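Following up on my earlier thread - several people asked me to post the actual chain instead of describing it. Fair enough. Here it is, all 225 residues.
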Amino acid sequence: MLKVHGVLLSAGESDRFKGDKLFTEVKNKPLILYPIETFLNSGVIDTLVIVCNKINKKKIKQLLLNIETNIEIDFILGGKSRQESELNALEKLKEKNVDEEDFIVIHDSARAFLPSKLLLNLIEHAKQNQSAAPYVRTLLFSKDLSKYVNENIVEIQTPQIFNFKTLRKAYIKTLDNSFNSVDTTERVSQETGLEASLIEGSNLNKKITFKEDLDKIQVLLEVQN
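Reply from S.P.:
Thanks for posting it. Predicted structure:
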């Protein structure tokens, strides 16, 4: 039976946030715990790999002492770039002899408020379509903000899901060239020709880059509750 492995990317420096983003508390809980708990409580994740730096590894391990789970959690150090961090995670999974057809769910920890329902929908969609990624619609305005330039622009979010064989093939090919992609879907498309199958995402799943982003999401959370 095929398994589902989560990869949580948490190795960013948070320079633009101007603070320790991962451990900023919302409702008395560090941000990093939100996506971790979403994965662990989903009922569909078999293992979890957390990609982070040495200092945060110790902090996260300390936080996990208060969480009961039967899911195996591994840590791997992040690389100099996003793609290097993702490859490190894939190599860690390769060491564990994961099946080539197992699904890998790659998610940015900065998208801390990933709805559980969205995660479940994405995994189910991937099982039927060999891949999955969420999107939200965005608007492109003219410089003077007087009119829409394009109403059909979409922003691709995470989690992004592919099977292990496809992902590793894309990353190994990336090592042989200078292509530096924005995210996993672009890399897989460029290196293997496989386009991610998209489903509608969530505004709650917005990436937290600046403190203002967190303020906006907290408003959405209050409205939802």
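The longest strand covers residues 131-141. That should answer part of your original question.
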